[in-house]
Amino acid sequence: MTNLRTGGRILVDQLVAQGCDRIFTVPGESFLAVLDALHDTPAIDLVTCRQEGGAAFMACADGTLTHRPGIAFVTRGPGATNAAIGVHVAMQDSQPMILFIGDIDRGTRDREAFQEVDFAAMFAPLCKWAARIDDARRIPEYVARAYATAMNGRPGPVVLALPEDMLVEQAEAIDRARVERVGQAVDPDTLERLRDLLATAERPLAIVGGAGWDTAAASAFADWATRAGVPVAAAFRRQDAIANDCPAYAGNLGYGPNPALLARVRDADLLLVVGARLGEATTDGYTLIAPDHAGQRLVHVHPDPEELHRVYATDLAICAGMADFAEALVPLDGGAHPHAAAARADYETWSTPQPREGVAMDLGPCVAAMRAVLPADTIICNGAGNFSGWWHRYWRYAGPGTQLAPTAGAMGYGLPAAVAAALRRPGRHVVAVAGDGDFLMNGQELATAIQHQAELLVVVIDNGTYGTIRMHQEREYPHRPAATALGNPDFAALARAYGATAETVERTDQFAPALDRLLAAPGVRLLHCRTDIEQITPAITLTTLRNR
Q: CA 204 to CA 270: how far, in whole Å?
């Protein structure tokens, strides 16, 4: 019996073998053979997107939720360049993803053929591995390697180019079995050294983040931190690494953190960094924690050995996955330090919004209103912008998979991520929070949400400005804004044009009733919140910035 198949059929068969059940795509003529194979593959849900950047963001978010690579297919040239933003986010966010790109015929390479790009060269700085499959017989090998590369060590994106003629050629190929993430246990000697460091520390503090956190790992780590009395801070946009109701949880680092938490980080004599890279945002430009961190000992736990000692001088480096490390902590005595309770009290005060006088639309109470009616396991998705600071400060995340937010700071991520989350977690509440500029980066994916019958809520914060850049302008060049004012559409009317239910609010007291009405409606819903640019962040106004 022959095993003769087209390259497109072989590729789809490998995806099924690896457990792929969903692909995000903008179709292109360069991979018609794959689309033809998918026509006869009911095991894979094909999600048709409206722009390749949106498709790549969805794949990145899907990989975050499943811990297996999210899959996107795009065409060559413009399709691939549009999708590059999602690859960059997946890399900086350490999330597993595979981008497949339909490519030119092998025989026309190096002639600057129609939409020709050297994808291996283009994507090499943006991903873990970029390659081209020139032989259909080797598709199983490449796909298995792509899955292994995307999931193991520090998770991240892989890019594979698919020559159009390779996908239609007939070949016999040997299928590969499903690839799993390799376990990374902690050796006993290393654990004993960690025990000694914790025993001699007077002011230990943990920072959690990165990828690979699941419910079991988060629960085990939270239980240990509570028992040990070690305060736990979350890295930038990784507030869902452990549940925020953990008695040891002390808040988040990044932009606009609690000054009391910053003081605790500076005062710590032992930093236990688990999963986080200690990147620029988390460390306030490598100043909150300096690479040489004089007077502090640093234990760094990370799944990728190349990340350990890369930037930070490390007293104890532990190469382990989050689940393996959290399990190893279970029998470890942390010393019952007394600091977690005070750090927790600081966090609860900081994360409880107080009404502001003279603010028509006060976002703090709006977040509190959402917390009052939405389940704790609601998935909050956002892109980039100052608007996100209200949710970072006042929302309380319930654990892994409840915060989808790009550490790369990419605008336009929230809505595509919410579409992916709604399809991946049917029955869960999913909320996309977006600024006005942020929303219009990928607002067209409302059409994808409607077409694929997603259930989600979009909250658009409209202050008529690229707020983050305006904030920087007022700080560096007071009273001299340029290029940051926005002329916006009626976002509620726009949403209705797509087929969503929508309302507009302009005052704080209108928010909760409108939210209740929208939550009672099915499908895609949008709440348009008109706000004043003066309150530029939860903690500061434009006037205050100028006066500085």
A: 5
Q: Please write the tens of the pLDDT for every residue from 415-466.
A: 999 999 999 999 999 999 999 999 999 999 999 999 999 999 999 999 999 9
Measure the CA–CA gap between 319 and 324, rounded to whole angstroms.
10
Q: Number of helices (H) and strands (E), helices first, in the chain?
A: 21, 20
Same domain, 324 and 297: yes
**For residue 182, is it within any domain?**
no
How are strands ordered across the β-sheet holding 379-382?
403-404, 379-382, 430-435, 456-462, 524-530, 501-505
| pLDDT confidence of residue 114 | 84
Question: Per DSSP, which regions of 178-321 are E strands?
Answer: 204-208, 232-234, 249-252, 270-274, 297-302, 316-319
CATH of the domain at 333: 3.40.50.1220
Q: CA-CA distance, 46 to 170, in Å (whole number)?
A: 24
State the CATH number of the domain containing residue 122: 3.40.50.970
Residue 107, SS3?
Answer: helix
Q: Are the C-beta atoms of residues 222 and 231 closer than 8 Å to each other? A: no
Residues 332 and 369 both lie in one domain: no
Residue 511 and residue 363: Cα distance in Å, rounded? 9
Asked if residue 1 has pLDDT above 50, the reply is no
The total domain count for the chain is 3
Residue 531's domain comprises 352-547
Compute how many other C-beta atoms are within 10 angstroms of the C-beta atom of residue 23. 26
CA dihedral 60, 65, 68, 73 (to 10 degrees): -30
Are 45 and 76 in contact by the 8 Å Cβ rule? The answer is no
**pLDDT tens digit sequence for 14-71:** 999 999 999 999 999 999 999 999 999 999 999 999 999 999 999 999 999 999 999 9
Question: What CA–CA distances, in Å, run from 285 to 254, 278, 473?
Answer: 10, 10, 19
The pLDDT of residue 334 is above 70: no
CA proximity to 234, closest of 209, 204, 267, 268: 209
The two tokens of residue 363 are 């976002």
User: In the predicted model, what is the mean pLDDT of residues 462-480?
Assistant: 94
Angle at 517 between CA 512 and CA 522, to 5 degrees: 135
Instruction: Read off the pLDDT of each residue in 167-185 and give the average, rounded to a whole number.
Output: 95
299-322: average pLDDT: 96
Choose among 356, 348, 382, 351: nearest CA to 367: 351
Q: Which stretches of 238-384 are assigned E, i.e. beta strand?
A: 249-252, 270-274, 297-302, 316-319, 379-382
- Exposure class string for 227-248: b at 16+ Cβ within 10 A, else e: bbbbbbbbbbbbbbbbbbebeb
In this structure, what DSSP letter does residue 185 have? P
In a domain, 138, yes or no: yes
In three-state form (DSSP H/G/I as H, E/B as E, the rest C), the secondary structure along 247-276 is CCEEEECCCCCCHHHHHHHHHCCEEEEECC
Strands 170-172 and 4-6, by their bridges, are antiparallel
